[in-house]
Amino acid sequence: ISKMYHKEKSIHMKSSASSLYNSLSVLRIAPRCLNCFTVVHANVVNMVSASWDGLNYSHRQLQSKEGNVATSSSLIMQAALCVLPSRDLLVLTSQKGIQMYESDGSIMVYWHALDTPETPTAKVVFARGIAAVREKYICVGVSSGSVLVFDVPGKGSNIILSEVLEEHKEAITDMASECSGNLECIADLVSADDSGLLCVWKSGEDFHLLNKIPGFDTCCSSVNLWNGTVIAGYGTGQIRLYEGVTGILHAEVNAQARWIYSLDFAPFTGLEREELCLISAAEDSWVRVWHVSLTPETNSVEIEHMYNECVTDTQICGAKFCDGDGYAFAVTSYDLSEIIRYTQA
Amino acid sequence: MSQRTLPLLIINLGGEMIYILDQRLRAQDDNDDKTQRVMNDIVATMFNKAFLEELLQPQDLYSHRALRTVLTRLAHTSIMRLNQASMDKLYDLMTMAFKYQIVLCPRPQDLLLITFNHTDTIKELVKDNPSLVNQINEAQRQLIEVYTPLSDGDFELIRHTLLVLFQDMQIRVSIFLKEKIQNPNGHFVLQTSGPVPYGFEVPGLIRYFNAKGQEVRRTRFPSGGNYTSALRQGSFDLSGDRVTILEMDPSTTSNSTRKQKQADTTPNPLAKEELNLLAKLMGGMEVQKILNVDTGFKVNLLALDQEEEGIGISEGTAHESSRVINIQATQDQLASTELARIAGEFDEGGSLTEGPGNKGDDLLAMMDEL
């Protein structure tokens, strides 16, 4: 399959994107109709709802609020739109803690403060890494390496911290949950950290650690989970595909010439659930699209390069598919006040 | 947000400032002794033990305003004086030069190599003064002690903290535009060719493994760029080849001994004649010696007939106005009111990283005692 993409009209934001891993989050509100994008700028989240053709859009800027403080100057490390069966939530992680809002950013439903030391210490404290897991969990990572598990009711603000998972020793960078719908998959969540360590978990009343895949002292900045396969992007510009539960390395790609900042995937329309489009983006200005196929019978994985796009003179920090089948993707870069969109030609 | 950013920021910005001032003074003034004295005084302050200790405390980054104050104080530790507009211009240049280095930094820990490049060059400038060289060596030892244990992730956080500070600064600098390292829209040019960073592989290879971890197959893909293998690792020692080519020492890119020519009147900002690098940057400068008992002298970094356009620097909350200062080596009419307006706009309001209490006060108080 050859996919060629062309550039569409960009969506302008009120402020530029900060250089954070996985800086772009996309919510698909209706197929081929509307997308909601969130992009972090320092202590503010730019939210844009855009029509499919990018011609109609509305903005909102959400300022980081912490506890009783009306606005906060603490930097936001990540903003992610989380999809649970009963509701969508916007989760923000910052130096001070974790905020959860209704997905349009209108109301804050929950605030969790991190323990921050009174006087500055060398080890900075922040939260980063967000994933919605199964029916009712939102998991958030912390700079200490802890993973906080929040139990989220179908509606309302009675969200509680139900568990703290302590396996990582370095700051969490990214987390991803299994959303293939494949009931045979045991693993529900993968967490990644600054040392490249990957932890694979099963969710439940008590989360259970299934496997630890060591890193090579290189940051794993972005991670995905599909049908039990962990797809991870590293600070060395490499992508690795592992079988999550066993830790077997299927393939390693020398993908990019600079630190990878974003990985995302979309399954192909109408094809077997074991095929997907993968998109990687890095500070080297390249966005690359790959075709990944998993064959459960032979337990093998194939990754094929499909397409390159050079977003000239930009350090890309976010690249996401706008829809479920890889037809369109959007890109954000440091210092750029636009969301650049591409669709298949 | 990283608590370890300030020392790298001050030393690198201070380093840029020292290069620029050294070049300017030597080009304008035959009195090498006076220039050397200014350099020695600034270096002595910047690498003062107590000053460095204060910098090395884990702490938040200063705001632009506090930073500018510290650097202005540093520039004025000697007999040289800069007026407000000149200092503003110098600050813009140093920050854009350093921003370029941070943006292009291939791996986060290379920030340390860039810092060492700066300390190496400063050492060279004061090499005839053993006590200053010792101070710089001592500073480098402390930097090595504090920074070499940091992980990739720690350095990436430092880099992220710096990128937040410099976010949306798109000041166009004539020499950067001319050398094609900056676009007309202010964004830096990012090459998709050249050596990959140390520890990276050239993109283009996919390797497959069996359950025992043995490689069983490889395939290739076109990477689009023109990348080559990594160079050797730079040295993180007190001295050594840093390998990185990122530091922007003007003396390596132009003939630094050439005196500034009388500025010509063509309006072409990218005139091809080879002016002294700083003359291109500054558009012409004057050093006014004050003929009185005071041996001090003023440096004016702006030609009298230079036009400046542009506005200030955004600090996070955005409004959609163009935020560019276009520093051109033109000789158009100066509107002194325009300069005053620009100088006024640099006095920005509260910034993102300014917390309660005044950061930098301790540092400034200490500098007064030095």
Automatic annotation (TrEMBL), chain A:
Residues 4-343 form the WD repeat-containing protein 54 beta-propeller domain. It comes from the Eukaryota. This is WD repeat domain 54. It comes from Cyprinus carpio (Common carp).
From TrEMBL, chain B:
InterPro entries: OSCP1. GO terms for cellular component: cytoplasm; plasma membrane. It comes from the Eukaryota. Pfam families: Oscp1. Residues 248-270 are annotated as: Disordered. This is Organic solute carrier partner 1a. It comes from Cyprinus carpio (Common carp).
